[in-house]
Here is the input.
Amino acid sequence: MKVNYLNYKQDLFQEAIDNKEPVVYVFDNNHNRLRAREYYERPFLKQESIFLTVAELKEKLFPADRLVLKEEKLAVIFYELLTEEEKRKLKIDSYFDAIELAAEFFNFYAELNEYNIGKLEGLRDWQQQKYNILQGIRERYLARMEELNYTDRTLAFNFNNLCLDYLNGYRKVVFVNIVNFTPKEKELLERLELAGMKVELYLQLAPQDFDEGNLSLKSVSLPADPGTAIRLYHTGDDLLQLINLIIRCGQDCTILDADYDNSNYHRLLSPDKIIIDKEISFSETKIFRFLNNLYRLYVNTGQREHYLILPVNDLLEACYLREFRDYYSLTGYNLRALQELARSGYVYFSPELTRDHRGPALSGFEPVMEDIKQINGMRTLKEFCSFLEGVNLRKLNDYWLVDNVSQYFDALLELSSIEEMGIVSSWNRYFDDTARGLFRMILNYLRYKKVKPVKNGEGEGVRLDSLLTACHDKRERVIILNASRGVIPSEREGGFLLTEKQRLALGLRTYSDRRLEEKYYFFRHLFSSKEGIVFSLKNLEGNVTSSSFVDELKIEYGLEISEMEVRAVHYPAVISRIFSPEHLSTAYRPAPDSIRADNLVIEREDFSEGVFTLGYYKYNTLKDCYYRFYLEHIADLEEERLLIKKELDPMVIGNFVHEIFTELINRTGVSLQVDRSLVEEVVEERFNSYDLRIDDYYKRYYRDVLLKKIKESVLYFFGLMRKRVKEGIKSVRVEWQPENGPDSVFFRHQMVDLYLNGRIDLIIDTGERKYIVDFKTGGSSTDQLDFYSLLLNPDLVKDYRIEKGIYSVMEERYIPGRPGTEFDFAAELSGNIEGLFSSGEYRAEYRSRCKRCIFLDICRVVMG
Here is the structure.
């Protein structure tokens, strides 16, 4: 076996690629394979060279005579083989708990196979116990695979399966810059030589750094003179690093990111300037976001006797996702109807709601309910995949991605084959809720798929690649990002079963080996370029420091940290330049006259047809803040995203209690005579009618505690009123509202006639006086009684006899109002209304409670 050593300044691919004879070239990754092909000149009508990765070479030389199981199928068969005792010992409660362990299990035995390690010995007690479990699973796995006539990549990589037919016609195999081989890979090279093949290695490193006996990297020597102009920079945060990168990069430059897998620069940088050919997780596609939303909806779906119910909060959250609205053709009209349902206290949505007066607006959600109903009936993976194949992808296609649709259908095809392969006995062994489990299983599988963005031509921009997988080119200029401790070298991870010391004794790959390989890639990219720039994040407060590789550069070559052109003090200038008006489209550029302070002037157009009705709660807002009064009651602004709590909303409790009193008073009339059986009947009827407004989690508590309290309080109230009202009752009115006519205007202004309005819970008329009762389940104010008195006596007649009171339902307490206070309240009310119009604007004044106001962000804009 011949080993060719190259120095860092030589062009690796130019030296390794031979255009004179057909050769099998093998590389450590696909980036190097593709780049090397560019150096190859295809011969005319002659046998061509082959370019493969190590993994591809193994597949070609160790062909399986059985079906090879991969990915999700391995996790499924792993869980299928577990006994109840093993699940208990391994702390596995569900199939999803087993997925990570399954991956570790198969990787562990694949590694033992690569390093020709049989049975492990000398383990500690806890290790031996776990190893015994794993060995038991492994034995059953091998027996099951034999029974089903299947195999996997680890089992296939067996020299009993070695077949060199693929190499017929080739005499030479060249391994290009692969610095570490496993013992089994080393044996493969030896067998190739025994078969008469010429095997060569091309390595871009010093001879003393490579162990030719074990075919592995043993050190990384730094040349006395690197021949590279190196500059080092520290930056406090990622944005500063990015800004200085943009300043520094130009033509003949390659950017290598040490934290490539975790960074999201492809979302920030223009592909016209910097090309990032990075695969994207399928979880970022419209298809996945839509399905994930549908899954979340289904997970919280409830069951009634004849229909399903959806939590309104979850349905609202789903509707805030554009993909979900587009797919079901939901409009603002539908969304507003759902928000109004939420404001009315509904916590569940059911098909029944589409059949009442809200039907037209809520009927848009019927297709959602239909899909949820279909999902609820799924019992097999094949059924589920068939349903998902019918999803209208024209509404969910990301046209900026190349293969999202094909990856989606490939995944469904792979998953649907699981049941056909006979490896699952029953999904009931995997999931308590079959439909929910299968849906989650499908999403888990899709999540790990990768998709590629569409390339808009090759472009002239600078390329940004991963430091660890970038091709081993010779470069004019390289910029390395994120050369920080914990990123490169990567952090030490806890091993599966074995300690680092045990791995070293067995000859397995250790953290030190991985660190050495990362060190080689770091210095190889740097030293094979004429100029190198290294950025490190250094933030002592965040415990972020530069990489030990950077520290080694500083010590070895006496380098200093250079000062960056753009630092934290320049942030204001950078941001102002990005968002300056000359850089904004005219469509988004503010008009000069709108930049001045915006005072909300009171205008006639604020009041429809010159009429405005003022209720008690509107008045409280006006008294508290003119600005909020405008936003809430003139502009009719509402919260965009509603948060529905599981607990019963105080407003809903109030409505519930009011309906009980209304029903009982309507039944008793002027007698106000009730008995316990009637109260219990009405309360139970009302409670059942609130089924969609009460969260199932609290339903039993409300029935056992709240209803009992309300029943007793209702009985107490009727007994109390029969004692308080000593005269004969002529009439009883509930939920009474005044009729607004020309003679009932409370306040006249040139812009508007203002009427008072409200709904009085209970009016008892004896002829001599009127009794006003306001039922409360929460806080109360006697001001509201005064407001209601004005509704009955708008002309403020002095001898109009009103007795008013609040009945606190939860406290079983009657709170009488003071007689005559409505006259002072009327003066205060008129004064506050006059104050609004005399100010001429909806002015905002800061108070401490403003911090809790839902309109705070809008208010800040106006207050400047």
